[in-house]
# Entry
Amino acid sequence: MAKPIVLVTGQNGQLGSELKLLSKQNDQYDYVFTDVAELDITDAEKVAFFFEKYKPAVCINAAAYTAVDKAETEKELALKINAEAAGILAENCAKVSARFIHVSTDYVFDGTASTPYGEDHPVSPVNFYGESKLRGEEMVLAKHPSTIVIRTSWVYSFFGHNFVKTMLRLMKERESISVVNDQVGSPTYAADLANAIMQIAGKQDVPGGIYHFSNEGVISWYDFATAIRDIAGLQCEVKPIDSSGFPTPAKRPAYSAMKKEKIKSLGIELKDWRESLEGCLKLLLC
# Structure
């Protein structure tokens, strides 16, 4: 008997790469991994053909436009990938009765809170990347109400480009670096997120809606950088600075920690951010 198929978009990204690695341990499914070369998710006709061909039981959308600063000038492209394409996938999932897991971001919040955001907290993005992801959330839930939307934050991995790898490189090249200390949130090791998504994919009774996922703990980017330095055993001096001293095209929320009780109620265990960082650095430094 044929195994149910899991379709994964964004296979070359951080999350997609971790899902591909994890799929080797989850053989109750057959997997179809795609990136833009295999499936352009912004092309409605191609997506419809793909769904008709494979008839996936589950679709995991790990594809996204994630260049936060570039999104301020590439609004059309950000919207096309983060909202319109997500809507196309949701629509096709609905047609073949596939479960849809879509990944979103903490950047849908404005950052003015001082305690973690719940899933039902009012949203108000402060940059266009966050706006495009919010429109994606709205679109997928409108087209396929049983969609599971997972908001995550500060994602890093052994794969791809991310803060952890950038810090390692800069700390080896320089005697000192400056990192903002007035933006607070929670890191997410993509391997942990992939594991949570795989668990959810295997549960048939997870209600549709929005869920929050990150590693446990609330820190600043400065705290994150000093932990990377200390765990890696590097000598670079890390200096705290205000974000006003490090201007970027896109504004960032000052506070974006999220409540995660809802996802924990599904039996998903969350690791402490430092424990996960140590695990990732062990891979990066060996």
